[in-house]
Sequence to fold (1162 residues):
Amino acid sequence: MTRNWRPRPGRRGSVVLLATAVAATGIVYAGLRLDGGPAPDDRDPWSGSSTVTEANAVRQAARTGKPVEVTADRTARSTTWARPDGLMAKQLHSTPMRAKVGGEWKKVDPNLRRTGSGWEPKATNTRMVFSPGSGEQDGQRASRSTMRRVSLVRRAAADAAENPLVTLYVGAGNEYKIQLTWPGPVPTPIIDGNRALYPEIFPGGDLVLTADDDGFGQLMVLKNRQAASDPHVRQLVYGLHSAQLTFRLDPVTGIVSAENADDEEVAMSPTPLMWDSSGQPAVTDGGVGATAQPTGSETPDPADTGGLPDESPSPTAEEEAVESDEQSDTDVEVLPSASDSSAPEPAESPLPSAPAEPTPAPSQSGSAATLGLPSLEGPSPDSRGELVEADLSTGQWRLTPDQDFLDDPATTYPVFIDPSVKKHTQDWTTAYNRHPNATFYNGKGFNKGGTHEARVGFESDTWGTSRSFFNISFDRDLKGTKITKAKLRLLESYSWSCSARSMSVHLTGEIDSHTNWKNAPKLHDGNKLATKSFAHGYKSGCRDAFETFDVRKGAQKAADKGDDSITFGLRARDEKSQYAWKKFHATQDYAPVLELVYNRRPSVVSNSLDMGPDGKCTTTKPYVRMGSGALTFTAKGTDKDKNLDYLDFDLWPTGQWDSAGDLLGSTGKVSVGGDTGTALRSTKEFSTTKLKNGTTYSWRVRAIDDAGTTSSYYPVKTPCRFVLDTSAPRPPVVSSTDYPNADGNQNGFGNDAEDANWSAKKFGTAGAFTVRALNSDVVRYEYGFNSATYTGNVGRTSGTATSVSAVLSGAKPPTAGPNVLYVRAIDGAGNPSDPTKYFFYVSPRDQADSPGDFTGDKLPDLMVVTEGGNLAMYPSQADKDDLAKGTGDLDYSMAGAYRSNPDKDPSGDDLPPYVPASSGHFKGALITHNGDIYGGDGLQDLVVRLSGKLWVYPGDGYGAVNVDRRQEILLPEGAPSPADFTQIVCAGDVTGDGRPDFFATVRNSAGTDDELWAFTGYHGATVDLAVRLNSSAWKERDLVVTQDVSGDGVTDLVYRSDVSGKLWLRKGIAASGGGVDLGSLATAANSSGGEDNEYGASGWSSSAMPHLMGTPSANGDTVPDIWAVRADGSVRFHAGGKTALSGSGTEVIARADYWKTRIGIG
Fold:
């Protein structure tokens, strides 16, 4: 059924095309992130200019008193300047303004030039080649052999020989190639700027290709009714080919997507449309709306406050590593955060002049007459049209125009059909309520000779309401900056009248190539940033003009989050009035621009904090003790903007900030002088006579620039602390070249850069530590590893100068991985100092890990999921007299997981290569380990059930796993879903085939009980066999040990019964082919001896011991042992027995509240 552009009822799937419909959709590059940032004005000063770094620009701006561009930071979409006032400025464009050609930035120029391959744009960010005509092809034909098979709607018969029309290159480094072909000869094109007209590609049909920075538009023009009867028109068939991509069709919207091997959409084609020539082009000085001018002004809009909270952001510092529980602050203080002082508002820059009205294009004649058709750029308000039915099969893209529409006498020829092939860069879209499922992504406007335009408001000629959205790339490096000004600049090109009407700008989520009216982000007062009333672009009385919106709140929010894009939504405040209808330039030179002025916050180098004499910043007990005399406080501040002003130190009695305030006063305000980029500064001496003996004090520091912008206080979480002690000796200074300090930041073990400091000495090799007293009356040092148990000592002569050191030689730390050396000084009266805790990592031996061992010392270790969903690794310790024999003791943990640093520049920077795994990554996980599961590298791996899947996280040999390297473990057909697992245990090789095996308890389908399953034969990708051993009775049981307990070489099973509160041993029977007979572990009756034997007496219920873990022998007797987390927060080690456990175990971790909240161990 044919329809006019008026609201009327119709069949499902038919449409009412708006006056604002996009003229040419197309295959669009779908790079999932915006390409760099925007560009400056429309000048072209980019070629051949020397590169100016930010540091040079800052210096030049200060010297000359003029803004200086940071040319080293240019991108396709952004320009950055250093200002003479010490602030920085940046313009971020919604569409690319420049492209790199031959290694130099050029202004985007899509006009076509002849090359050896065909016709190509002069300067675009996307390469495309238009056909020179099939008579001039280079002999290359489209190949069906490389086409990847797609999901088909139906298969069409092959057509005539294909000839390339256009080739589009997308992806990083043009890694993907898409070729569109025509089933027949391709005529020699007529070139007009960025357009290529292929006349009479079939009788009465012209094809127009239009090059843009983001790809190309494609339009078939049926010049007369005779052309509509051509077989090509009854079903337009294009070849669509790519060797690397898979094409998929959305049957509802008609969108065609191209996906790579990772199922990422890298290209797309929006909804295809068709329209006729019946409408009159909409022009800014036309008569549309002239007879219906409003008689009064609009109702005033509420004050323009926006919907986001107007609050100064808290200064941000670098993220702290997840703190291990052993090093958490026990003296928690509530302290005021750093806040900025008021800074002068940056001066407003004048708005640029609007461009002149476009000059009418010269009329075209002859074969080029099609290029002058008024509706070539898209439908006019009164045009008639329909959606085009799309279909997809291997190598063919078929478009079926509405035949009723083509045959309708009311249809005015020429008719335009746009299957469109155009790159997608996620720039902008307009959403229409009259086409709720249609996408108009990066859509073109329809004014002949005009630019692409976005629309807002209600348009009465089509009874359609529109809203528009713009993605603008944002600089992640703006994280932590203070945005002092942010203006969104728009050029209004059309209004319904010269009577001002309001529209609003909103901060929304990101839009993409599938955004339409139905799924577009909501625009409401809660996300409103600004409202303005104006009218430009209607007749000569109110010509096109720029408007700006204050979007500082939204820009600050994006900067605080470190976003790499920001999205603005535009809507009319009154969406029922035609007088609020507006259009804006959306692409090219006059696209929306986000103009920022910002000040990057100064920062403090976290490991620079120090105090004198011979003190340091300590944040965990025991705090450093300082004697009588004078104190100094030291820190290093930095500022990328080079406008650092001073460092501000605070000192107060711990827990008494509110009552005591800052004790340092003016002594704590230290000017940086001329070192405005980086400055290491110390306070003047502060006498301890103003302090109280025996009292704990806290101190911290922040950096402030000359704009009043402050860093966070450092340390970020817990302040530095010391105890003033004028009687006991002070803790000694400890250092070592054999075992480098891993705690220069005084925050214990974590994921800082210093946590990469591993010892040169391998585990088991003796090394040395150097100690130095800070009091001359010290007579000896006492030391021990990993707890305040002092097993060694070194003498010292009283009266020896404090500059003289002693050596603790022949030291053998008891575990590979994290260790802490405790050293204290004893004076002549027998008074001990508080201990110095020296944190260091011991490198593993150069040998394969033993089962259960993550650190290469042949001793099993314990992995823990903390309450926050983070992974901690606890290495077990060796006997101090025999490193080959373990004790099962657990003390300090280290971070058990990390990931590649997403902010690190592949080209090189000062950032560490790895950072902590995302906080909460292991929330809800089941974990287990028992050997090298993946890769055959001899290193311990971790098996994890997470997010409904089973994974192996390869170990790195140094006690941790890289979450980026995890691999999914695939289960065989008929196996239960990992989502239903209630427990999983690595068993090593129980079947004798040399491959890892697992046991798991699984919730049954009814949810009433748990089943016992065995999964055998994992070989790096899949498990060979899944066997259900028992279909019931395991809901009240927990697997504890799945190893050889009895010593007969056959796997046994130890489990906990919550009904009896006991541990039970089920002995396995050897299989004839080797390994264990799995059936013997299925039930007590099937086992060796025909019954389960009591292994642990009462007291083992889950309420008494929430977590149990069986482990390969830790004490060297070959019998598996057990770690048990008790309800009181203590951890005990139970040495295994061949028939039963004896005794109540050994407490290896004293009661601690954080052990009560563990999610799991394994």
Notes: The domain at 733-843 is CATH 2.60.40 (Immunoglobulin-like). The chain is about 5% helix and 35% strand. The CA atoms of residues 618 and 991 lie 53 Å apart.
